[in-house]
Amino acid sequence: MLQQTKDGEAEAANAATVEQVAKQVGDLTTQDDPETDTAVDSGDKKKKKRKKKKKPAQVFEKAIANEYRGIYPPGEFQDYNLKRTTNEEVRADANLEEAEKSWNKFRKGAEIHRRARKHAQENIKPGMTMTEIADLIENQIRDMAGTNDTLKGGIGFPTGLSLNHCAAHYTPNAGDKVVLQYDDVMKVDIGVHVDGYIVDCAFTHTFNPKYDGLLNAVKEATNTGIRTAGIDVRLTDIGEAVEEVMESHEVEIDGKTYPVKCIRNLNGHNILNRRIHGGKSIPIVKNGDPTKLEENETIAIETFGSTGKGYVVQSGECSHYMKNTEPPANASVRLDRARKLLDTIDKNFGTLPFCRRYLDRIGEEKYLLALNQLVREGLVTEHPPLVDVKGCYTAQFEHTVLLQPTRKEVVSRGDDY
């Protein structure tokens, strides 16, 4: 059926096209069949066979083919009526708009991350101090950030350089004398942010190949977590998949065989703008949590393997701090020095994690008493090193993943891992 349009010109054009096609059909129906037989002599009378005409369907098909040369015109286009109406739907539209704005910023941060970690992998050597290694990585990020404003871009959190049985949250403080050894297993956890959108990505650096089995187990577990993660996937299902792969491995180190265990109280997490831990924990063991991942979330899939107990506790001098995004309502700051320090934190870091070296770098002095008061009042949270049993080895691999509506993007993926 023909459909009326509001545009008179379009209607006239359609009518002209129909008339033209009809004329061609009429012309073709009056043409002789080229295969008509000649007259046949049957005595005194000559008889002619009747000329055959092509069937209307064949004629119409040929006319249409000649007219459009196989490229047929479209019909009427109409937009889908996808206007969101419920509060949840409106919120979903807003989340998508925000997510789309963030994707290119995550990609910029990821490119800086890839270059910074390549620089680190090529230049870290045994005999370097932890401070030299941290400066090597962080100065590279600062140089590539394109801004001196630490709130607009640059380091997303203190560079983790946790060694051996220490799994996470170690970075050197001023005066740290620890030196990297050939037989060390170092977790290099690097954060880069662009306008508060944080790329969280880590690898494990070793020199001695005897640890290759441990590193491969953890890397495989991380990739399994990435493959499993997605919109509407339950958190416990990700943990179960990671655990199954990780703990299927055992490794031999110095003649002794160890089962590789997931460090069950360390997790991945979702990432919000200027909040490295957004509220969801992504387990690396089956834990029964039915919470599901959602469209447009940004997540960090990170897994930790250990030759020890597979459980960490806080130990050692604290270096990592972060302003509390949900401070107690009754928090108060009595010391003038503490109020000034909190103002410095707001201006330089906001809610991004920081360490004592960063305070030293911007000229803060004699701040430990004030910093401890901010911690006691709940305005700042502290995150000491996390360690398994001494003498064991731990490894970590991590990537940042964007859960886009129709696909996921492992934004920090590189040629190295």
From TrEMBL:
GO terms for biological process: protein maturation; proteolysis. SUPFAM superfamilies: Creatinase/aminopeptidase, Winged helix' DNA-binding domain. Its cofactor is Co(2+); Zn(2+); Mn(2+); Fe(2+). A divalent metal cation 2 binds at D200, H269, E302, E398. Residues 45-56 have a biased composition (Basic residues). Its EC number is 3.4.11.18. It holds the Pfam family Peptidase_M24. One of its GO terms (molecular function) is initiator methionyl aminopeptidase activity. Substrate binds at H169, H277. Binds 2 divalent metal cations per subunit. Has a high-affinity and a low affinity metal-binding site. The true nature of the physiological cofactor is under debate. The enzyme is active with cobalt, zinc, manganese or divalent iron ions. Most likely, methionine aminopeptidases function as mononuclear Fe(2+)-metalloproteases under physiological conditions, and the catalytically relevant metal-binding site has been assigned to the histidine-containing high-affinity site. It catalyses: Release of N-terminal amino acids, preferentially methionine, from peptides and arylamides. A divalent metal cation 1 binds at D189, D200, E398. Residues 1-57 are annotated as: Disordered. Keywords: Aminopeptidase, Cytoplasm, Hydrolase, Metal-binding, Protease. Residues 105-310 form the Peptidase M24 domain. Its main location: cytoplasm. It comes from the Eukaryota. It is found in: Cytoplasm. Cotranslationally removes the N-terminal methionine from nascent proteins. The N-terminal methionine is often cleaved when the second residue in the primary sequence is small and uncharged (Met-Ala-, Cys, Gly, Pro, Ser, Thr, or Val). Belongs to the peptidase M24A family. Methionine aminopeptidase eukaryotic type 2 subfamily. This is Methionine aminopeptidase 2. It comes from Pichia membranifaciens NRRL Y-2026. The lineage of its organism: Eukaryota, Fungi, Dikarya, Ascomycota, Saccharomycotina.
